[in-house]
UniProtKB/TrEMBL annotation:
Belongs to the prephenate/arogenate dehydrogenase family. This is Prephenate dehydrogenase. Residues 2-285 form the Prephenate/arogenate dehydrogenase domain. Keywords: Amino-acid biosynthesis, Aromatic amino acid biosynthesis, NAD, Oxidoreductase, Tyrosine biosynthesis. Its EC number is 1.3.1.12. It catalyses: prephenate + NAD(+) = 3-(4-hydroxyphenyl)pyruvate + CO2 + NADH. It is an enzyme of class 1 (oxidoreductase). One of its GO terms (biological process) is tyrosine biosynthetic process.
C-alpha cells in the first residue's frame, strides 16, 4: 500500500496513521475538527491535507453513529479504491451504509481489538495494534482487491486478522468488550459518593477493574445503542450470578455455612473464565483445526485463498499470517471446524495451493 486517507484522527485513526506512516505509506489526515488532524500531523501521522487524487484505502475512524454517513460521503466523493471503518460494532454500520446507498463491494467493516480509555490523537501510539486481533467482516460481494488492502493494513499495523460474520462479531464483543465496560462502570460508580476514608485505600485491584470506567460516555452510548440486545443478554446472566452471590453472602452473614459453596462457585468459575483469556498473541481455540497455506508475495493471493475457501463452502473461523522477513506474507493459517478441514484441504490442493503441516 502506498497511499491512505484516515478520516477521524482520534485515538484509533491516529494510531493507524502512525503505524502506516512509520512503514512508508503516504497518509492523508482528515477530521471534522481541524485541530485534531493538525495535532495528528504534528505527531508524525501524515499530512493534514487532501490527497491530489484517489488513495488506495480510506480508513473511517469516527464514532459508530457517524461511520456509515462518513463512509457513504467518502464513497460518493470517490476518494479511494477501498473503504473500511473501525467501529466497535459491525452489523449496524453495514446496514446503515446499505440504506444510505453506499457501495458494499468496495467496503469492509473491521474492528481492531485494541484501544484505550483515553480519546483523541494525543493518546495514539504506533504499536497499539501489535499482536492484537483485528476483525474483518467481508461479505460475498466484497471485492477481493479491497479485502487484500484491508489485510495489508492489518499486517502493516502488525495485528492478527480474524475473519467473522458481522452479527457474530457483535454477539462476541457483547461478551468480551461491551459488558465488561458496563461492569467496570458499575463498580466505579460505587465510588462516586463513597467516604473519602475508603477511597483513600484504593489499591491495584480496583485500579485494574475500573480502568475502562474512565472511557468517553458519548462513544459508549453510541456503541451500546448499536448492540443493546446481545449486551442485555450477557448482562442478565451477570445479574443472575450477582443475585446468587448476594444470597450466598447473606447466608454466610446468618452464619449458614451453606453460603460458602455459592461464593466458592463464582470464584472458581471466575478462575476458569480468566484462564481462557488469551495472551496478547492469543492461542487458537483448541476446537479448531488449522490448515496452513503457503502464500507468495504477490498481490491478490490472500483474497484468492478466501475466495477458494468460500467456493468450497467452508467458513473460516480465524486466520493468522506468519510473516517471513522482508515479505508481506509467508504461511497463512486458516482455522476451521474440524469437520470442514478435509473439504478445505482438498479444495485448496485442487486449486494449486501448496499446503503445509
Ligand atoms: N477507543 C477504543 O478503545 C476503540 C477501539 C477500537 C475501535 N474503536 C472505534 O474507533 C472509532 C474511533 O474511536 P476513537 O476512540 O478513536 O475516538 P476519538 O474520539 O478519539 O476520535 C474520533 C474522531 O472522529 C472525529 N469525527 C467525528 N465525526 C467525524 C466525521 N463525520 N468526519 C470526520 N471526523 C469525525 C472526531 O473529531 C474525533 O477526532 C469508533 O468507531 C470506535 O468505536 C475504538
Ligand atoms: O483496552 C481498552 O481500553 C479497551 O477497552 C479496548 C477495547 C476492548 O474492549 O478491548 C474497547 C473497545 C473497542 O471497541 C476495542 C477494544
Amino acid at each position: 500500500m502506498r497511499t491512505a486517507l484516515v478520516i477521524g484522527t482520534g485515538l484509533i485513526g491516529t494510531s493507524i496513521a502512525l503505524a502506516l506512516a512509520g512503514r512508508g505509506v503516504q497518509v492523508y489526515l482528515r477530521d471534522e475538527d481541524a485541530d485534531q488532524a493538525r495535532t495528528a500531523a504534528a505527531l508524525g501521522a501524515g499530512a493534514d491535507k487532501e490527497p491530489d487524487g484517489p488513495v488506495e484505502l480510506a480508513v473511517v475512524a469516527v464514532p459508530p453513529a457517524y461511520a456509515a454517513e462518513a463512509l457513504a460521503a467518502a464513497q460518493r466523493a470517490g476518494v479511494a479504491r477501498g473503504y473500511i471503518d473501525v467501529a466497535s460494532v459491525k452489523g449496524g454500520p453495514r446496514r446503515a451504509l446499505e440504506e444510505a446507498g453506499g457501495d458494499l463491494t468496495s467496503y469492509i467493516g473491521t474492528h481492531p481489538m485494541a484501544g484505550s480509555e483515553r480519546s483523541g490523537p494525543l493518546a495514539a501510539t504506533a504499536d497499539l495494534f501489535e499482536g492484537r486481533p483485528w476483525v474483518l467482516t467481508p461479505t460475498p460481494v466484497t471485492d477481493t482487491e479491497v479485502l487484500n488492502l484491508a489485510l495489508e493494513l492489518v499486517a502493516l499495523c502488525r495485528a492478527v486478522p480474524v475473519v467473522m460474520d458481522a452479527d457474530a462479531h457483535d454477539r462476541a464483543v457483547a461478551l468480551v468488550s461491551h459488558t465488561p465496560q458496563l461492569v467496570s462502570s458499575l463498580v466505579a460508580a460505587r465510588l462516586q459518593h463513597a467516604d473519602e476514608t475508603a477511597v483513600r485505600l484504593c489499591g491495584q485491584g480496583i485500579r485494574d477493574v475500573t480502568r475502562i470506567a474512565a472511557s468517553d460516555p458519548a462513544m459508549w452510548i453510541d456503541i451500546l445503542s448499536a448492540n443493546p440486545g446481545p449486551v442485555a443478554d450477557v448482562l442478565s446472566e451477570v445479574a443472575a450470578d450477582l443475585d446468587g452471590t448476594v444470597k450466598a453472602l447473606r447466608a454466610l452473614e446468618a452464619a449458614d455455612a451453606a453460603g460458602t459453596a455459592g461464593v466458592e462457585d463464582v470464584l472458581r468459575r471466575g478462575n476458569a473464565g480468566r484462564d481462557r483469556v488469551p495472551g496478547k498473541h492469543g492461542a487458537a481455540p483448541a476446537e479448531y483445526e488449522i490448515v496452513t497455506v503457503l502464500i507468495s508475495d504477490e498481490p491478490g493471493q490472500l483474497g484468492r485463498v478466501f475466495a477458494d475457501a468460500g467456493r468450497a463452502g467452508v467458513n473460516i473461523e480465524d486466520v493468522r499470517i506468519e510473516h517471513a522477513t522482508g515479505q508481506q506474507a509467508g504461511r497463512m493459517q486458516l482455522m476451521v471446524e474440524p469437520q470442514a478441514a478435509p473439504a478445505l484441504t482438498a479444495a485448496l490442493r485442487e486449486r494449486g495451493w501448496a499446503l503445509r503441516q
